[in-house]
Amino acid sequence: MRDGSMHYGVDIANSSSNVPVNASAAGVINKAVGGCSNNGSLGNTCNSGYGNYVIVRHNINGKTYDTLYAHLQSISVSVGQTVSQGAKIGVMGNSGSSTGQHVHFELYEKARVSQSEAVDPMPYLNGDKPTGSYHTYDGTWATITITQKANVFEYVGYGIIGQLEAGGRYKVYGQREYAADGTLFYNVGSGYIHNAYGTIANHHATVTSTINTYSSPNGAFNRQLAPGTYKVHAAKDGWYNLGAEWVKADQVLVTKN
């Protein structure tokens, strides 16, 4: 609360000239809204009081976050542009409903719809907010949510051994194609589920420092992988597949969706 009403973010001020405003995390520019003069005043309604502002959409450990940066003097990015953490997105200013040079910073733990959904960003800025619940390697690489009653097959495509009800959520240990027509089935531990009867949510692996990747588990060295978050496509013998390469499970932090 501030002066009897909710303030949906934090204000960070700096009176120096041409102060850069940088992306708090890697993401894609979702909005870049300008057109406001840099001589704001309390109650100024330009762009709903935000003045010139940018919204960056982030995918962190498989979860969507939006961050908003308002009252900018100028904008340095465009919608759809990919930015890295620390990339300049604009210059601190005094546009919109503002009484001095600062950046108004908001954070959303989802895709932003309305300002009332903003959360306190300070736990994130202080490093107190956990960025995910990391799971212990168990041979899984995704989860599947059953969308309609589904048969469970002992083998890929034949040998019905049971059924799963709609709404259930299960671990995915692997996937195989039915040789006759190429239909994809998911291994849920107890058997195989036809891909049409569920929705897959891949795990995500966070790399915190540069690591080596390999052509296969215990295979040939492939390349070095930079820090970032990557979709997991398979798991085998203590390794994760990140698409075209494999990494050791103990070198990444993996979260389930």
Automatic annotation (TrEMBL):
<dbReference type="Pfam" id="PF01551">
    <property type="entry name" value="Peptidase_M23"/>
</dbReference>
<dbReference type="InterPro" id="IPR011055">
    <property type="entry name" value="Dup_hybrid_motif"/>
</dbReference>
<dbReference type="InterPro" id="IPR050570">
    <property type="entry name" value="Cell_wall_metabolism_enzyme"/>
</dbReference>
<protein>
    <submittedName>
        <fullName>M23 family metallopeptidase</fullName>
    </submittedName>
</protein>
<dbReference type="InterPro" id="IPR016047">
    <property type="entry name" value="M23ase_b-sheet_dom"/>
</dbReference>
<feature type="domain" description="M23ase beta-sheet core">
    <location>
        <begin position="6"/>
        <end position="115"/>
    </location>
</feature>
